[in-house]
Amino acid sequence: QLQLVESGGGSVQPGGSLRLSCTASGSRLQNWNIAWVRQAPGKDREGVSCISTNGPFADYADSVKGRFTISRDNPKNTVYLQMNNLKPDDTAVYYCAADWAPYLNVCATTGTYWGQGTQVTVSS
Q: pLDDT tens digits for 58-86?
């Protein structure tokens, strides 16, 4: 069974950067569509980014385009979310999620399997 563990969260000032990691065990991550989803207190869950298994193809929410970059390192069984120029509105718990989707050129911000989440706080 696939297990996902997020890491890399923390507290930063506006304009700062963080890199989140989503490391998998139990299966080869290269066959899974991976999404980053965040949830701020009192707000609905928001799909932030996703990356496909083939290509890979990546997609981003409008709110993070140009600031966040998703990438995968298949030998390390890890997907990263590089977050630059962070804003207070980026404060949330960030989750990675996975769906079985080998050989696809598109991705989606959905997931059957979820990690436990990592807190990102952006504040001066």
A: 999 999 999 999 999 999 999 999 999 99
